[in-house]
Amino acid sequence: MTELGNLAFEANLVYTRTKLDMDYVDPSTAAGISDVTFGPSLGRHFGAWHDLFTLLATAPTGDYDPNRLANEGRNYWAIQASWAWTWYPRPDIDLSGLAKVVWNGRNPDTDYRSGIETNLEYSANYYFAQHFFVGVSGFWHSQISDDKQYGRPAGENGNRINEVTLGPQFGWGTPRYGAYFSWKRSLYSKNTLDISQLWLNTFIAF
To answer: Residue 1's pLDDT is what?
Structure first.
């Protein structure tokens, strides 16, 4: 059975806790609700293949202080377009990906505008019992245009970010709702922090 044109609307809220402890700079910590992301999506289903197109806006709702290194929010608007897909080669295995482009607005407090970003996320999962699954996931985050401040490229090579991560994940989920933990480690990073990330992700389909 083929089903076309499932229109939906999504809104994402993220709680973040960030601590920066660097040489020659006082430690900085921020915790709270980050910027809200919202917008429409269109899903399609072709047997074992499913995909989703989205157009989202990120509003600067998180707390921001230009004199603080760590912040919950980024203090500027952003627009992102993405295409996500999942393929089930067999009922207990899924292969998924997401390709995304992000256009960043200008931070009015610093006159700083980040360049256009691209993101490719990937994951593979095995479902072993009662909707539990284990797998691997990661992302490739790359910037294709320079950061700019006061109309000029910022930093060396426009501060273009390039990062690749990979790590394990474990969780429980159905087509309607679920939750999972994922840990990602940077395999390569340029102009960004070389860090490990631990995520708790939840989802509910209405």
So the answer is: 43
